[in-house]
């Protein structure tokens, strides 16, 4: 993937598709706000103990390429795809849910203020028009149970790098189209997409991934209290900057937690049994999306699809985390 963004031709290797970036898109790709996403792992804290290292920027390019491919003339929708993740915190969802942040609100703020707003206005776009799109049901994403471009890319990208997909993503993207705001395909392709959903959820919602999430959130809280800083200090940071703050803290608790997270994860134990003084972590959200087949939800035409969706829903559990002293 050519991510220097000096040239307008941007190749997405996962889908084997080249998009010509419009002048305003290219300028946004060159902004610090977008560039920061290169230093946020899409896979959250799981990237700390796995080989999966793709970034939020990789995901953004993927989503934008899908929207540009199927909706080439809809410039505001393309911009929404380009900017939809800029408000993410370090390690993405890992600390957001536990610490009470909302990356959607952060994204809206970054679009409507500062360098992004300036670039949009320079080319005649209203920042509020883009944030309005992000809050509506569109082919990018929606509040329904149906699959849009954002989660489609997440599932396929994560599962591909996990090594859990039979078909390459480019084969699947060539077999989909959009029915309104929703991805539609045939049953076989739909089941392959659902396989990727299951692989992705099983991995990023594994007990140890959730345990690392919980310990990282605890370390951030301890850092904030020890150093008397508002916890919002983490909002503009990259993954590396956050780790640096935690590693250089003088707090004994923070030092111990980041040592375990980075160097000694084998000390962590996770159980479904309630344990006294254990750190409680839970699956707060799943993405049980489905595609359309001949205008109908795939679960209405396939028992296998219903079983796969139930596999994902069954992952909603609570765990108790301890570590060796």
N-to-C SSE string, H for helix and E for strand: EEHHHHHHHHHHEEHHHHEEEEHE
* Relative strand content: 5-15%
Shape: globular
Mean pLDDT: 94
Pfam families: HD
Domain HD/PDEase: 52-164
Protein name: HD domain-containing protein
Structure characteristics:
single chain, 325 residues, mainly alpha, two-stranded antiparallel sheet, 9 strands, 10% strand, dGTPase-like, HD/PDEase_dom, HD domain-containing protein, HD_domain
How would you describe what is shown here?
The protein is mainly alpha-helical. It has helices at residues 23-29, 32-35, 56-70, 75-83, 93-99, 103-112, 114-122, 127-134, 149-162, 169-173, 187-204, 207-226, 239-247, 252-263, 303-313, and strands at residues 9-12, 17-20, 177-179, 182-184, 268-271, 279-282, 292-293, 296-297, 318-323. The model has no long low-confidence stretch (mean pLDDT 94). It contains 15 helices and nine strands.
What's the layout of helices and strands?
Layout: E1 9-12, E2 17-20, H1 23-29, H2 32-35, H3 56-70, H4 75-83, H5 93-99, H6 103-112, H7 114-122, H8 127-134, H9 149-162, H10 169-173, E3 177-179, E4 182-184, H11 187-204, H12 207-226, H13 239-247, H14 252-263, E5 268-271, E6 279-282, E7 292-293, E8 296-297, H15 303-313, E9 318-323
Antiparallel strand pairs: 1-2, 3-4, 5-9, 6-9, 7-8
Short structural description:
The protein has about 325 residues and is mostly helical. Helix content is about 50%, strand content about 10%. The chain starts with 8 loop residues before the first strand and ends with a strand.
């Amino acid at each position: 993937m050519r991510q220097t963004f000096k040239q307008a031709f941007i190749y997405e290797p996962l889908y084997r598709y080249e998009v010509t970036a419009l002048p305003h898109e290219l300028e946004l790709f060159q902004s610090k706000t977008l560039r920061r996403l290169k230093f946020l792992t899409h896979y959250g804290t799981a990237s700390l103990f796995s080989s999966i290292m793709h970034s939020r920027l990789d995901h953004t390019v993927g989503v934008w390429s899908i929207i540009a491919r199927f909706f080439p003339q809809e410039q505001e929708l393309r911009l929404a795809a380009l900017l939809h993740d800029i408000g993410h915190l370090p390690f993405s969802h890992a600390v957001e849910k536990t610490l009470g942040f909302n990356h959607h609100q952060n994204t809206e703020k970054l679009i409507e203020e500062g360098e992004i707003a300036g670039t949009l206005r320079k080319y005649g776009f209203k920042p509020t028009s883009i944030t309005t799109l992000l809050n509506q049901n569109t082919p990018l994403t929606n509040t329904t149970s149906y699959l849009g471009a954002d989660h489609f890319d997440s599932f396929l990208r994560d599962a591909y790098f996990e090594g859990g997909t039979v078909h390459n993503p480019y084969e699947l993207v060539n077999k989909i189209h959009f029915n309104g705001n929703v991805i539609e395909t045939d049953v076989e392709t739909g089941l392959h997409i659902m396989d990727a959903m299951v692989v992705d959820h099983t991995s990023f919602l594994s007990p140890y991934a959730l345990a690392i999430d919980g310990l990282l959130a605890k370390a951030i809280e301890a850092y904030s209290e020890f150093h008397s800083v508002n916890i919002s200090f983490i909002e503009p940071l990259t993954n590396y900057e956050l780790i640096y703050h935690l590693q250089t803290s003088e707090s004994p608790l923070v030092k111990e937690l980041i040592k375990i997270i980075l160097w000694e994860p084998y000390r962590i134990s996770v159980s479904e049994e309630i344990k006294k003084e254990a750190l409680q972590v839970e699956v707060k959200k799943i993405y049980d999306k489905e595609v359309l087949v001949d205008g109908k939800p795939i679960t209405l035409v396939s028992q296998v699809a219903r079983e796969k969706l139930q596999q994902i829903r069954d992952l909603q559990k609570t765990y108790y985390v301890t570590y060796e002293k």
